Amino acid sequence: MSAFPDFAAIEAMDATDPLRSMRARFVLPRGVIYLDGNSLGAASTAAFAELQSAATEEWGQELIRSWNTAGWFDMPLDLGDRVGRLIGAAAGQTVVCDTTSINIYKLLHAALALRPDRSVIVSEGGSFPTDIYMAEGVVATQADASLRLEGVDAPDIEELIDGDVAVVLVNHVNYKTGELRDMAKLTRKAHANGALVIWDLCHSAGALPVGLDGANVDFAVGCTYKYLNGGPGAPAFIYAAERHHGDIRQPLSGWWGHARPFAFEQRYAAGEGIRRFLCGTQPILSLRALKGALDIWDEVDMAALREKSLRLTDLFIALVEGKCAGHGLKLESPRDGARRGSQVSFSHPNAYEIMQALIARGVIGDFRAPSTMRFGFTPLYTSYADLWHAVDILEDILRHDTWREAHFGIRAAVT
Amino acid sequence: MSAFPDFAAIEAMDATDPLRSMRARFVLPRGVIYLDGNSLGAASTAAFAELQSAATEEWGQELIRSWNTAGWFDMPLDLGDRVGRLIGAAAGQTVVCDTTSINIYKLLHAALALRPDRSVIVSEGGSFPTDIYMAEGVVATQADASLRLEGVDAPDIEELIDGDVAVVLVNHVNYKTGELRDMAKLTRKAHANGALVIWDLCHSAGALPVGLDGANVDFAVGCTYKYLNGGPGAPAFIYAAERHHGDIRQPLSGWWGHARPFAFEQRYAAGEGIRRFLCGTQPILSLRALKGALDIWDEVDMAALREKSLRLTDLFIALVEGKCAGHGLKLESPRDGARRGSQVSFSHPNAYEIMQALIARGVIGDFRAPSTMRFGFTPLYTSYADLWHAVDILEDILRHDTWREAHFGIRAAVT
């Protein structure tokens, strides 16, 4: 067995955790150890309060007047700036709207328009699939565009970046393995070849400090319903570096991105700055739940978050490898914390059945085909003791082979 | 003065209104006569209950499991079929997702792909602008595509439809005047020329019976936050006639429209039928409020709705023209009910100030530049007596010129 701390040591880690008080802000079900915040973040009393007020007061009582009096119209930009602080973006460069998929489409078109003499999009074969699917959609509407994939056209993404590449679309943290890319290094490589970069932050926003401005990133997208805890399907975000704002062209040119949306002009005229990524009317109730979630984030120190995240993932690896040795689990995530996001994946030939058995026992992670068990660690509401208990249950399942009888089903959902 | 009923007659109309009981299902602010349900529909206790349960139970307690146990994943299609009943669409042809603007983009691309030898999009200069803006976005990504506008390139849309036209994008009810187009006639005209038709139902879905299947329509879009009362920014819908399903190609090819979304395949493969219009993860909380609103619609007879709508709009015209004669108001909506949606617009040189004064007195309609006052009538919660009182206040404002002092501001918002 590998070395791992005993329960007394783990209790001491919780007792001195500087983020310990945050857990009380969240609504967590009894009897559940929730290790799937990388798929859907937990609810909070702040999110519920915003939702309640948006529904009963703003919609119910103020009705159409709330577009102005409750600031509905400004929410995409207001919330964008608050997400911006968490991803290293100065104000005015981030907007919350639509979905990650649709925002990728906007950014790919914007990037291709900025590089009219180039036509290649580079992405990853191991990307969360929707990134590739959206790139395929762009290629289908741009006669000369084409797609190169890491793992398909070359083993390493850097080999694919040359003078024909307009844009590199890449995940900051891999959804399956949790591997963290070196943002600054890959961005430099792209820029050195005259290409632009779009970073997909779905699995890093709220999971670790992200420094978009510092790394000289061009564009980024991400979702708000994972580590940011914005609620199921909460709108996504787009970041665009200010230096590109004047030249952005994207085809989803709806009324909300117009320079004068209330003038009802007959022809489109793009609004200023990041606003031109807006398109149609946004789901206000879902945005207001996200606002509540971001109220909590305003109090979070991102360095403390990262420190706890690394301690959580290190501890989980040590506990699993220590307590569950000999049961065929294999670490799929980087062992080096510096190369890891806030999740840990283990493979096992019976990963699906074991995850079903874990969920039936109240330990919620998720399964990714063909053989991955994925566990996400959310420093705001996951305790060290949670991991001790979760691994105890995992070990019990493996030792008694109870996964062979598991039949409680949960279909894998949403990245 | 024109003839109009007295208050006793109006009370009798309310007393015998077959939809009278529906008003109690809605949450309406005290002291307000709400004539802006054509911009943002009123809240309902059913919508609040669904929202509450989605937030506290499904998100808060069940978390990721709700994707299956609460049917989150199936909601776009489930709700789509329920909207379908209100717009004359048999099951399996309607899906709720994204925004009207984005859905127009999908449909324009799908239509152009179905008519590869044609390149012209026809629309209306007087359209709600986002329809034109999205068509411009499509034209920007399709080198050979072009746009013809009624009122710009010819006075009547029918003159613009010839053998070069791939698709006609047209509003069923004009957002500003309330004019209702003859859906069957224009669809026949397009089909006779080999073109496809996209109907924008934003101002007709829930305002009157719509018969998409019966009129042999190809495609339609619409929003759910006006007459359908789904909540601010609730997701929009798409209809596609079943005969086109096998051939639909649209570039917003996200993971939710994939044939096997949970297989995490590396390449896109479009799902079956209407599902292929889905793209990214939908805002579940906003969708659940819409579900509550649709529960009410399940009980509504659309013929009774239309009958009451016509009586409301006829009465409003009679009251305004009768009580406010000589004050410079001019009817902008068709006088013939058969050519009118569920709204009435009047122009006045001081329309903006008069609408401000009305809102300050609790009568909420809206203003559209340069000189239109728009009043929407929602048969589920507007009473005939509401109109009597609203016009009394309007007459008082006009008679005393109190609009000259009006300064309470509301910016026109959202179609």
From TrEMBL, chains A, B:
Catalyzes the cleavage of L-kynurenine (L-Kyn) and L-3-hydroxykynurenine (L-3OHKyn) into anthranilic acid (AA) and 3-hydroxyanthranilic acid (3-OHAA), respectively. It comes from Paracoccus onubensis. The keyword Hydrolase applies. One of its GO terms (biological process) is L-kynurenine catabolic process. One of its GO terms (cellular component) is cytoplasm. The keyword Hydrolase applies. This is Kynureninase. It is an enzyme of class 3 (hydrolase). GO terms for molecular function: kynureninase activity; pyridoxal phosphate binding. It catalyses: 3-hydroxy-L-kynurenine + H2O = 3-hydroxyanthranilate + L-alanine + H(+); L-kynurenine + H2O = anthranilate + L-alanine + H(+).
